[in-house]
């Protein structure tokens, strides 16, 4: 009897592996990608819109620099103030389609779960959880709770998992204790729930035994999050992707319903060939030993920043990832405006001010928008003269940002503000965490590629439609 049971288990395991292998060897998967929308009427005040974006971007940066702490923002999360991009994924049998924020700065995939999902302080939905699309476990025949001794449980509880499995004896084969609840902290809030094993449906292809979080309670986060980071539970890692790419629509702040594409590539689709017109820079090895909480991030080697062709003299220890795990640059789809450490920002902003001395500073707008520097442009049809901002990466890749990717007009006024946020860190040294976080506002209208197989980050400027 034991032998028969063992054979059945092996057969089931082989069938699961064959199903996943079938997905991995298939053609690329294309998923619509669009800006995130909420139901509340947005603010019509252009200064307030930018202030909300700046505030949430800075809150996000604080979280990335210190993932073990929640930094709640007091601003309301209007549609324009989040600045995220969403994908719709289908889980269960039959499939249930749920919207997720695509986030390269985290790894777990989780959705609002059950009819009793609670979202506190979700002002955009008037605290009404009925407006939030949630997954219903009772409607799926393929859902299972993940056990405490399942390897996937250790993905979210790490080495601490054994101390949490108190009802299980070591090497027990009959342990029925489920994986302990998770609590995840994000820059904008937190979420808590249980880990499930469920079937992910991608364009008609089934991926069984996908580990996904079933969140019962969230604070400030109304929508599920699809982690695309470098950790084990992320969507790219669970699917064994060789690379993924996206092209981000321009931030119009008008609740456009247009979408572009998120493309998932299987192990045999990309090879070592480069995508036409794409510049590449290698990923930098994560500081796993010193800062294991940063292992999920995509570090890139930003070597210098130029303003109007002039190199900004940034101390090397800010740009390089130090042996202590601090400094360096990460790419994050979940951040809106790019973040720069105080010392870096001062140097970049100062050089911009020197080259834009012919325009008057709009100090009143700076105070109300939360951004600086802001400049009053001429009211006539005189040609606008603003310096080019460029990022230069290891390997020779250069990102020459279009003006709309680092300066934003305030409503219909003739005022522009630099769309980069900073902290009040001591300019004498590097603070904890990455020194620069490249946000999605600076990535808009770029084809962006995460080549996981060849450990490189690629980009090319193009119009995302």
How would you describe what is shown here?
The strands form three sheets. Strands 2-3-10-4-9-8 form a six-stranded mixed β-barrel. A four-stranded antiparallel sheet has the order 16-15-21-22, covered by helices on one side. 19% of the residues lie in helices and 30% in strands. It has 465 residues and is an alpha+beta fold. It has two domains: 154 residues, Cathepsin D, subunit A, domain 1 (Beta Barrel), CATH 2.40.70; 183 residues, Beta Barrel (Cathepsin D, subunit A, domain 1). The protein is globular and about 75 Å long. It holds the Pfam family TAXi_N.
- CATH fold-type name of the largest domain: Cathepsin D, subunit A, domain 1
User: In percent terms, what proportion of residues is strand?
Assistant: 25-35%
Question: Quick check: average pLDDT?
Answer: 84
Low-confidence stretches: 1-26, 38-42, 73-82, 124-129
Question: What CATH first level of the largest domain would be assigned?
Answer: Mainly Beta
Query: How many β-strand stretches?
Result: 28
Q: What percent of residues adopt helix (DSSP H or I)?
A: 10-25%
| Major β-sheet profile | 6 strands, mixed, barrel
Number of helices: 9
Structural class: alpha+beta
Overall domain count: 2
Q: What is the terminal separation in angstroms?
A: 60 Å
Going by CATH, the homologous superfamily of the largest domain would be Acid Proteases
The Rg value, from CA coordinates, equals 23 Å
Placed side by side, the strands forming the largest sheet appear as 2-3-10-4-9-8
CATH architecture of the largest domain: Beta Barrel
Signal peptide: 1-26
InterPro entries: Aspartic_peptidase_A1, Pepsin-like_plant, PEPTIDASE_A1, Peptidase_aspartic_dom_sf, Plant_Aspart_Prot_A1, TAXi_C, TAXi_N
Domain Peptidase A1: 85-460
Family: Belongs to the peptidase A1 family.
């Amino acid at each position: 009897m034991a032998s028969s049971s063992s054979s059945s288990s092996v057969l089931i395991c082989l069938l699961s592996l064959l199903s996943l292998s079938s997905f991995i060897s298939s053609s690329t998967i294309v998923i619509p990608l669009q800006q995130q929308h909420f139901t509340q009427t947005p603010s019509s005040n252009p200064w307030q819109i930018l202030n909300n974006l700046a505030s949430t971007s800075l809150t996000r940066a604080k979280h990335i620099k210190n993932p073990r702490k929640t930094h709640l923002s007091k601003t309301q999360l209007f549609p324009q103030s989040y600045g995220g991009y969403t994908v719709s994924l289908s889980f269960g049998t039959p499939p249930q389609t749920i919207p997720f924020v695509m986030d390269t700065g985290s790894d777990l995939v989780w959705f609002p779960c059950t009819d009793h999902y609670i979202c506190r302080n979700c002002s955009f939905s008037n605290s009404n959880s009925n407006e939030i699309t949630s997954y219903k476990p009772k409607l799926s025949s393929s859902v299972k709770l993940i056990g405490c001794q399942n390897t996937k449980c250790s993905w979210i509880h790490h080495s601490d998992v054994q101390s949490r499995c108190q009802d299980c004896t070591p090497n027990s084969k009959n342990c029925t204790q489920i994986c302990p609840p998770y609590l995840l902290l994000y820059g904008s809030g937190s979420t808590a729930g249980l880990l499930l094993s469920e079937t992910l449906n991608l364009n008609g292809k089934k991926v069984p035994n996908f580990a996904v979080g079933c969140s019962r309670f969230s604070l400030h986060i109304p929508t599920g999050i699809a982690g695309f980071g470098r950790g084990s539970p992320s969507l790219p890692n669970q699917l064994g992707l060789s690379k993924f790419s996206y092209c981000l629509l321009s931030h119009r702040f008008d609740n456009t319903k247009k979408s572009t594409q998120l493309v998932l590539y299987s192990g045999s689709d990309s090879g070592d060939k480069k995508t036409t017109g794409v510049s590449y820079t290698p990923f930098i090895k994560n500081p796993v030993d010193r800062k294991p909480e940063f292992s999920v991030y995509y570090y890139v080697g930003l070597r210098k920043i130029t303003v109007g062709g002039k190199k900004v003299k940034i101390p090397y220890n800010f740009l390089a990832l130090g042996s202590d795990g601090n400094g360096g640059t990460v790419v994050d789809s979940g951040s809106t405006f790019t973040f720069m450490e105080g010392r870096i920002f001062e140097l970049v902003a100062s050089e911009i001010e020197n080259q834009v001395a012919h325009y008057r500073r709009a100090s009143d707008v700076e105070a109300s928008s939360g951004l600086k520097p802001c400049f009053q442009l001429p009211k006539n049809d005189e040609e606008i003269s603003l310096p080019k901002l460029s990022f230069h990466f290891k390997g020779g890749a250069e990102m020459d940002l279009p003006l709309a990717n680092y300066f934003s007009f305030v409503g219909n006024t003739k005022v522009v503000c630099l769309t980069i946020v900073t902290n009040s860190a001591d300019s004498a040294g590097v603070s904890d965490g990455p020194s620069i976080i490249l946000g999605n506002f600076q990535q808009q209208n770029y084809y962006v590629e995460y080549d996981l197989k060849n450990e490189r980050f690629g980009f090319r400027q193009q119009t995302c439609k």
